[in-house]
Amino acid sequence: GSYGWASAGRFHHAQSHLRRFLNLLGGYTASVNTYSLGASRTILAHVLGGNVNPFQFATNWRQIIDEAALVVAFGGLPVKNTFVSPGGVSVHPMRANLHDASEHGVRFVSFSPLKDDLSEVPAEWVPTRPGSDVAVMLGMAHTLVVEGLHDRACLDRFTTGYDTFERYLLGETDGMAKSPAWAEAISGVPAEKIASLAREMAAKRTLVTVGWALQRALHGEQPVWMGITLAAMLGEIGLPGRGFGHGYGSMAEIGQAPAAVDLPSVPQGKNPVTSFIPVARVADMLLNPGEPFDFDGQRLTYPDIKLVCWSGGNPFHHHQDLNRLRQAMGRPETIVVNEPFWTGMARQADIVLPVTMSLERDDLGGNRTDPNMIAMHQAVEPHAEARDDFAIFSGAADRLGFGERYHLNKTPMEWIRDMYDDWSDRIESTTGENIPPFDEFWDEGQARMPVLENITLLGAFREDPDGNPLETPSGKIEIGSETIADFGYDDCRGYPSWLEAETLRESGSHPLRLVANNPSSRLHSQLDMGGFSQSTKIQGREPVRIHVRDAEARDIESGDIV
Fold it and tell me: Vertex 245, ends 242 and 250: CA angle to 5°?
């Protein structure tokens, strides 16, 4: 067995080549979802169905600017995160979008423990205890119900299971009404602030957006589910510029016009192996071969992995428990890592195959909501004996007897040209537009892609829910899900709810909380060795910010190693 993970990519995307190679070799144990959005994608499939994509097809910023009056952002809208997307970013409109919205009179409210999670434009900052957002949203929902401000007609027409949720909300299920006062005790947000903002949301054209960070935590399904529920109670689901959003401020692609045609990609074939794990269970899998585990209502079994092939990524940056992951990496017989740098994952390898960086090869660059396809010209010769992933896997495939099936006797540039031409043909047949022929594109350096303008998340469903049903059991938004209820999970009921977390409570031995915020100088560990990333460190360490009162109480001064 082997282990890979899925991600859309360019021609030289390492994981695309790895999957193609492993599928021809005999298959691999796959992973589902990502560290970035594991909880979100799983819950969204049940609540909104598989035919709704709130990431690639989010309500666009032009609509928000023109139509919204109030944006309530749980997790803020940090601009620094929007300079990146898979495949690169050629235009960076987030700052301009925020300013345009503010100048059009849109009011912003940010619920976050960090004030600068929304500091680009005038905004109301509501500091919250980390992980308490669901309690705040429940307090708002309680106000809407007891004051008769919720849109019952919208709930009846577009959702199912609301009555089950409302009984929980009012305390009929467990004897505890989820009132603003109840929410204040958990979140630290004053009850009157919760209630007054709920009234304002009911009176104005409101967008409720939830940052990706909220679902990267214990019970991460709940803030996403509750954000959808709150938007439905306001009656704003599917309306231009309003309703629900997930990830504005988390990555560049959210709210931008998506490509009209799928991007060029390497054909990867079909994996003949059916076993898989959720991506973040890699340590569990390696340490517990043959043991059962639960995932999304299924009872599955961890495979016994003898060989790990890792190409494109460093789990020692983003895994939950690094000491446990280090222990797990000692179990497989062989670990092979394709990597240009001496990362934590490379240090675990039996074999490290040095690969080229993007500046050392020709490539195509583009992402699914960026308007430009980029001709990525090789800038320098590969360092020492570094080779492209394509060359590495081509050589291995030749040695193993299926080389022609893998590389098709084509050079990298022939692959790039053929993929571009196929993409161009699909654009013409789908949209009727023509883009420049390959040679002209390669000389010019970029080509403008046709995009889908004026996207409204759930807009078609709102306009005609019978003609455009969701891929859920009811065809509607599932505020209450009988499917999830039937799973019988203690940590995810059949409706959005508050699940207590010990980490929210200060105690004498653990009085502080660490918020692991992405730094502004890099994304994850990519290019951390570069000068820009290193320039923001203090004695080689990532900066940690602490409130001045907490610092003084511990004799901590600026520049200290803590």
Answer: 135
Helix (H, G, I), strand (E, B) or coil at 107: strand
Q: Is the pLDDT of residue 411 over 50?
A: yes
Cα distance between residue 388 and residue 386, in whole Å: 7
**CB of 513 closer than 8 Å to CB of 130:** yes
What is the SS3 assignment for 347? helix
Q: What share of the chain is helix, strand, coil (3-state, %, to 5)?
A: 35, 15, 50
Token readout for 383 is: 């360092």
Task: Give the separation between CA 302 and CA 297, rounded to whole angstroms.
Answer: 16
Alpha-carbon distance of 278 to 34, in angstroms, equals 8
Task: Tell me the C-alpha distance between 336 and 405, whole Å.
Answer: 22
Helix H segments across 474-543?
A: 482-487, 531-535
Residue 525 has pLDDT above 90, yes or no: no
The tokens 């010019």 sit on which residue?
A: 444
Closest CA to 480 of 499, 497, 495, 470: 495
Arithmetic mean of pLDDT over the chain? 92
In 272-411, DSSP assigns E strands to: 276-278, 292-295, 298-301, 307-311, 334-338, 351-353, 363-365, 372-376
Contact 231, 97 (CB under 8 A): no
Q: Residues 5, 182, 212, 406: which is the catalytic one?
A: 5
Q: Which residues pair with 447 in a beta bridge?
A: 373
- Check if 5 is active-site: yes
Contacts of 559 (CB under 8 A, 6+ apart): 538, 539
| Separation of alpha carbons 174 and 144, rounded Å | 20
Q: How many helices (DSSP H) and strands (DSSP E) are in the chain? A: 21, 17
Amino acid present at 422: D
Alpha-carbon gap, residue 7 to 279, rounded angstroms = 12
Q: According to the model, what pLDDT value does residue 10 have?
A: 52
| Active-site choice (3, 162, 225, 420) | 3
3-class secondary structure, 207: strand
pLDDT greater at residue 541 or residue 9: 541
Amino acid at 36: S
Q: Contacts by 266-271 with C-beta closer than 8 Å and gap 24+?
A: 266/9, 266/11, 266/13, 266/16, 266/17, 266/20, 266/415, 266/419, 267/20, 268/16, 268/19, 268/20, 268/23, 269/19, 269/20, 269/23, 269/24, 270/23, 271/19, 271/22, 271/23, 271/27, 271/28, 271/30
CB 366 within 8 A of CB 11: no
Contacts of 234 (CB under 8 A, 6+ apart): 144, 150, 151, 201, 202, 206, 208
290-305 core/surface letters (b: 16 or more CB in 10 A; e: else): eeeeeebeeebebbeb
Q: How far is 153 from 233, CA to CA, in rounded Å?
A: 9
Q: State yes or no: is 248 an active-site residue.
A: no
- The 10s digit of each residue's pLDDT in 281-294 is 999 999 999 999 99
